[in-house]
Amino acid sequence: MRRFVLVCMIVAANLLSQGYAADSVKQQLVQQIERATIADPNQASQLLERLKPLIKPEDNLDQAEYFRLESAIYSALGYGDKTLASAVKGLDLLLKSQSVSLQNEANRDKIALMQSKLLINKADAHYFLNDYTASNTAAAEALEAAELSRNKKQIAFALISIAEMSDLIGAHDKSISLLLSAQEMSESIDDNRLKSIIFSTLGNIYVSMEKNELAIENYQKAIELHDPNNIFSINILNFNIANALYQLDKNDQSLHYLERVISDSRILNDQSSLAYAYFTRSEIYAERKEFDKALSGIEKAEELLRIIKDTNELFNLLTSKVNIYIQLEELSHAEEILVEVKLLMNELSNTIQKRDWHYINARFWAAKKDYQKAHKHALDFAFYDHKYLMNSTSDKMQRLRLEFNTKDLELEREKLERLNAIKETELTKSNSERVQYWYISIITSISLIFTFLLIYRQHKTKQVLAKLATFDALTGLRNRRSTKELLDKEFQRYLRYKDPFCIALFDIDNFKVFNDSYGHSVGDQVLSKLGKRLQPLLRDNDILCRWGGEEFLILLPSTQLKDAASLGERLLERTRRIRIDQVSADLRVSFSMGIVQVNPHSQSTDELINEADKAVYRAKAAGKNQIVCCMEYNTIGNPSISR
């Protein structure tokens, strides 16, 4: 009895592990998507499609997790609208789960953590859409949610997001202070990826401060901490280093990094990075007056930018292309490109683009020596440049008024310790409930196992009985009963569509000699070999069956009598070549066959089989080892027979 109980518990445990297998696969896939989002967002999109069938539509948390991953991928690809839409969907689903979170501490932490991640994605989306106020609000909310989750890593990410917003409004010192706090937190959890992101963000801030040497130093530290297999992120960091070197007029070093970016971007099929690298390289060549190389790079970048539909960068690239043609004094080419540049400027309708449009036009018309138009565009350029500076100052002052709800980290640590103590107490109380849950799960699993085994056994029994009722056990061919049903169906088909068919009935010659002289085992061998040898000569829709004893029947749908006779000759020739072990070579296997074709006078399949049987009898009487066909029907049941 003890052994039985132990076996049942082991089986139940196995079933439970299998039951959770789907969740395990889903969790592994989520981790792969998170890694791919950083390394290769396009691959992450493909993995997300594989995750979709595993998402439970009735589980709000499950769906929120899906939209969190989707928004992160869109954010990595730079799609502001799509990032925002997915993040909002995920946050709405989390709101529906609030009642669950109030009852379960683990769910509360999980929701807070997911909410923080979604809010960071939302902040990124607003940033891409140039809505900095909304971006700042989302980043501050992300920090609050991260603090509720008590997840140090997520708190650090929220601090990074707010630091980026602070840098955007020119509060560089505050940005660096926030990043140093995040860096202290990363040291306590020893996460190299987080450290790398912090150094990368510090590099971006130093670029905005025009401290490019410090920026390069931090980008290089980020690369050292990065996973060497994460080529995508390293490629972006190399591009940032190339840009910083370009700003420092270290063009040779910048070109070295750009060549590395171009090579890696081709491997990754990262069209955005490849386009930007070609564009930056062409600008360096243009400064060196190497215009052929510059135009070659611009052509490649232009093709890629049109594919990825980056209208803003395409405007900048075409403006640069016009500038090169002006320097080459190829003004007709420059004028053609200016037409598209104007269309893009109207589409973007941005002060910066309008400023740059008038600047390049002023240069163009000056080159054409139309100084009146050049002067007009120069005045418009000065107007939009002044407007841009005023707007920039106004935006900066407005953003500086925003308050970042960043709390003192020491107070947060104390709060974290208090909440952890409360959590431990609540977890102790819930242990008994978990034990009860596992007992119930084990009992339920055992019941399911026995039910499954019973159903499976019944299914297998039905399969065996169905096979025995349809097929002959010795030869593996269809038996008489199942073939008779097919014959009747074929006859009904003939009556409806007038599609002729034939029946070939044959009997093994001298079969009694095989049984009497060599034993029934040899007779069985003859029957089995005959079926195996003849089957390959038949079509897929032809039916060969064991009609009874040593007698076989072939149903030949859509077949004329002459074709059936020709097939019969081939079957007889194949039969004559059969050799049986322990049987004298003089004793050959053969058969006598009668073939009949359905005709307008046929009344039933029984009548046709009876006529075929008569033909077999005539073949036997004529000396066996031959075929007799019923050629014509003069009257019903009075066929003429020939060989």
Structural class: alpha+beta
CATH class of the domain at 480-642: Alpha Beta
The number of helical runs is 26
Number of strands: 6
Low-confidence stretches: 1-21, 99-103, 393-413, 633-643
Average per-residue pLDDT, rounded, comes to 78
Order of strands in the sheet with the most strands?
A: 2-3-1-4-5-6
**What is the CATH topology classification name of the domain at 480-642?**
Alpha-Beta Plaits
CATH-level-4 superfamily name of the domain at 480-642 = Reverse transcriptase/Diguanylate cyclase domain
Straight-line N-to-C gap: 75 Å
What's the Cα radius of gyration?
42 Å
In percent, how much strand structure appears in the residues? 5-15%
- Assign a percent range to the helix content: over 70%
Report the major sheet.
6 strands, mixed
List keywords for this structure.
26 helices, Alpha-Beta Plaits, six-stranded mixed β-sheet, 643 residues, alpha+beta
List the topology elements.
Layout: H1 2-19, H2 21-39, H3 41-51, H4 60-77, H5 80-96, H6 98-103, H7 105-128, H8 132-149, H9 152-168, H10 172-189, H11 192-208, H12 212-225, H13 231-247, H14 251-268, H15 271-287, H16 291-308, H17 311-327, H18 331-348, H19 351-367, H20 371-400, H21 409-470, H22 480-497, E1 501-508, H23 511-518, H24 520-534, E2 543-548, E3 551-557, H25 561-576, E4 591-597, H26 605-621, E5 627-635, E6 638-642
Parallel strand pairs: 4-5
Antiparallel strand pairs: 1-3, 1-4, 2-3, 5-6
Please characterize this protein's 3D structure.
The chain has 643 residues and is of the alpha+beta class. Among the domains are: 408-470; 480-642, Alpha-Beta Plaits (2-Layer Sandwich), CATH 3.30.70. 75% of the residues lie in helices and 7% in strands. The chain has 26 helices and six strands. It has a six-stranded mixed beta sheet, with helices on both faces. Helix 5 (80-96) runs antiparallel to helix 7 (105-128), helix 7 packs antiparallel against helix 8 and helix 16 (291-308) runs antiparallel to helix 17. The protein is elongated. The two termini are 75 Å apart. Mean pLDDT is 78; it is low at 1-21, 99-103, 393-413 and 633-643. Residues 499-632 form the GGDEF domain. It catalyses: 2 GTP = 3',3'-c-di-GMP + 2 diphosphate. Its EC number is 2.7.7.65.
